[in-house]
Amino acid sequence: MANHAAKPLALTLGEPAGIGPDITIAAWLRRRELNLPAFYLLGDEALIARRAKTLGKALGAEIRIASVTASEAAAAFTEALPVVATGERATAEPGQPDASSAPAALASIRQAVADVRAGRAGAVVTNPIAKSVLYRAGFRHPGHTEFLAELAAEDGRVPQPVMMLWSPRLAVVPVTIHVSLRDALSQLTSELIVSTVRIVAAELKSRFGITRPRIAISGLNPHAGEDGSLGHEEQTVIAPALKALRNDGIDARGPLPADTMFHEAARNNYDCAVCMYHDQALIPIKTVAFDDAVNVTLGLPFIRTSPDHGTAFDIAGTGKANPASLIAALQLASRMAAAKT
Ligand SMILES: NC(=O)C1=CN([C@@H]2O[C@H](COP(=O)(O)OP(=O)(O)OC[C@H]3O[C@@H](n4cnc5c(N)ncnc54)[C@H](O)[C@@H]3O)[C@@H](O)[C@H]2O)C=CC1
Ligand SMILES: NCC(=O)COP(=O)(O)O
Predict the structure, then answer these.
(1) Quick check: CB of 95 below 6 Å from ligand 1?
(2) Alpha carbon 78 to chain centroid, angstroms
């Protein structure tokens, strides 16, 4: 994974009232220092210009914006932040989502996928969306992960998307994603664990260059069930999945007690930890790598990365948002795109 993608990366707007515009501008300001891959923002130029004016003062920087098409973006990137219009106006002020938020955020995601599928972009990088704002507007997917899978459907077949949070120190995958803990328990099956881990193992090889990925599988219950006395899912659901995976030749280990599998020495024993539910996976990675962890969607026919954090309404428009996770997402998308070609 050495070379940068030749095609620019399509970066979505995210929630217009969140820190997406801020971290986009802050990342672009560091383009030369970090030799960032070229990217363009899909959104409303007027909104970006307003935010650039506010942040320019806070950051003491000159921010130039170029209104371009996707094919003009790479050439424009050095001198100006390229913005490709989606046709959806975004009127939200920092920290205050409004009725324009959901249509603007969704149009941007749709267009990014269209661009990557048409070969105009090398990968999709998404800025954070506010899930509750989208749900109130009728969005019926739990998050980007499932929406992107639907946009990737071919011949009516929707691929299984897998959420991976990656950092140089830890990679994690939740088998069940944005559902209540109660629903996670009912969704958890051996089949879901097997199909998830197959995708993880295949893409750690093809997209991350790990020849024989070591996958650690967590238990569900305290102490991985303590031989069945603290819960039986380890024996009835997870163990059969591990058997099937090992029969496939996948180096899958577990079920491991979730409370002891993330300390530094334990992390050296595997390339990715596959966990049974959202918080089991995301708490450890956001604890050890909040600033630079990247959310990667596996299982799609294109590359998608994202910062690990959310919309941070409390600091939008202030210049306090740290762009490190977005920068890591841009760099990882570029490396993955280069590895693929
Ligand atoms: N990929 C995505 O689209 C994601 C979206 N979200 C959404 O974001 C919204 C807010 O979620 P929260 O749980 O409040 O998490 P959050 O990550 O937005 O904020 C948590 C805390 O971290 C701080 N923070 C976050 N990013 C930061 C940055 N780059 N620099 C400095 N400080 C930062 C915030 O100011 C806040 O104090 C929710 O609607 C959630 O669904 C959350 C995670 C990922
Ligand atoms: N907790 C991770 C998160 O909210 C990101 O989800 P998605 O929008 O990437 O599906």
Answers:
(1) no
(2) 25
Q: What is the distance in A from the centroid of ligand 1 to the CA of 133?
A: 14
Q: What is the pLDDT of residue 57?
A: 87
Of the candidates 106, 153, 151, 157, which has an alpha carbon nearest to the alpha carbon of residue 130? 106
Residue with tokens 């996928």: 113
Which residue's alpha carbon is at the smallest distance from atom 34 of ligand 1? 312
Q: Separation of 76 CA from ligand 2 center, angstroms?
A: 30
CATH of the domain at 322: 3.40.718.10
Residue 178, marked binder: yes
**Cα 60 to chain center, whole Å?**
30
| Terminal-residue alpha carbon distance, the chain | 10
Do the strands 294-298 and 304-307 form a parallel or antiparallel pair, or are they unpaired? antiparallel
Q: Are 161 and 298 in contact (CB under 8 A)?
A: yes
Binding site membership of 315 for ligand 1 (Cβ less than 6 Å): yes
Backbone angles phi, psi at 157, to 5 degrees: -95, 120
Report whether 304 belongs to an annotated binding site.
yes
Clarify whether residues 154 and 134 are in a common domain.
Answer: yes
Say whether both 192 and 225 belong to one domain. yes
312 lines ligand 1 (CB under 6 A): yes
- Domain count of the fold of the chain: 2
Neighbour count for residue 86 (Cβ, 10 Å): 24
Is ligand 1 within 6 A of the CB of residue 101? no
pLDDT averaged over 10-residue windows placed end to end, the chain, 341 residues = 66 98 98 98 97 91 96 97 97 97 98 98 98 97 97 95 97 97 97 98 96 98 97 98 98 98 97 98 97 97 97 97 98 91 46
What are the start-end ranges of the E strands in 44-86?
Answer: 65-67, 81-85
Atom from ligand 2 closest to the CA of residue 126? 9
Q: What phi, psi does 328 have (nearest 5°)?
A: -60, -35
- Residue 117 assigned to a binding site: no
